[in-house]
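Input (structure):
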């Protein structure tokens, strides 16, 4: 994804990430580390400002975590399960984020996920988060999961394992509505945001492309008594694109 969703040179990418974080700082300091985040995954010029608003919440809490459970949807290959890669790390111009390979192997052995390198090789929803994660803490380990058409309960169970581990941050990568006019997208995304803030695990693909993972997070969070608030809600018409066909972006924090 280097050179497509974000700059291919490390100095340029670092400068862009830093600028996005500086320009989208929260008005109030986060009192406690978030247990989970929902962030968008388009090119940084489009969704980066919204994603940065959520990642800013980690600036003073990055050392609270040892690993990140990062889930996102399959955009390019069909998948009826949850898939993890067999590689030891994910690379971007800012460095390599090591995977928690022992934990991933355990999940595969238990049948909770399966190995599928191809679905990860073609997918951008995980990799576009790496510049923010590496900037926050280059020593985190990553648990990258592509959630295809998997049962909601299975996704909620997997996410619950992350939420129940105090040193694991859960991140779900998802955009909201796609290719509506600006005003229509705003109405759709506001309604979707209300569902998320009420922890209603009933989102459909036309509301959020990562609805499988989002619904799993909402179900797991509700069972644990977590609350969620909207950090930012915009679309590509607000950031870098035209307003006739926009993509919605939302950032949410769970505590």
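Output (sequence):
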């Amino acid at each position: 994804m280097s050179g497509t969703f974000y700059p291919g040179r490390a100095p340029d990418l670092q400068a862009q990430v830093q600028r996005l974080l500086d320009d989208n700082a929260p008005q109030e300091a986060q009192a406690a580390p978030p247990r989970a985040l929902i962030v968008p995954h388009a090119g940084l010029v489009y969704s980066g400002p919204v994603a940065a608003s959520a990642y800013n919440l980690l600036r003073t809490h990055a050392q609270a975590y040892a690993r990140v459970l990062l889930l996102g949807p399959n955009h390019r290959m069909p998948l009826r399960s949850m898939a993890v890669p067999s590689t030891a790390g994910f690379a971007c111009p800012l460095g390599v984020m090591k995977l928690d390979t022992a934990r991933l192997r355990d999940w595969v052995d238990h049948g909770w996920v399966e190995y599928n390198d191809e679905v990860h090789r073609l997918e951008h929803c995980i990799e576009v988060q790496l510049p923010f994660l590496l900037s926050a803490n280059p020593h985190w380990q990553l648990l990258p999961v592509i959630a295809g058409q998997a049962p909601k309960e299975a996704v909620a169970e997997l996410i619950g394992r992350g939420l129940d581990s105090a040193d694991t941050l859960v991140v779900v990568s998802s955009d909201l509505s796609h290719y509506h006019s600006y005003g229509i997208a705003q109405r759709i995304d506001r309604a979707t945001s209300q569902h998320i803030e009420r922890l209603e695990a009933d989102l459909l693909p036309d509301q959020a492309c990562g609805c499988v993972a989002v619904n799993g997070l909402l179900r797991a969070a509700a069972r644990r008594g977590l609350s969620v608030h909207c950090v930012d809600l915009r679309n590509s018409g607000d950031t870098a694109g035209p307003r006739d066909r926009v993509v919605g972006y939302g950032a949410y924090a769970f505590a």
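Notes: The first strand starts at residue 36 and ends at 39. The two ends are 31 Å apart (CA to CA).
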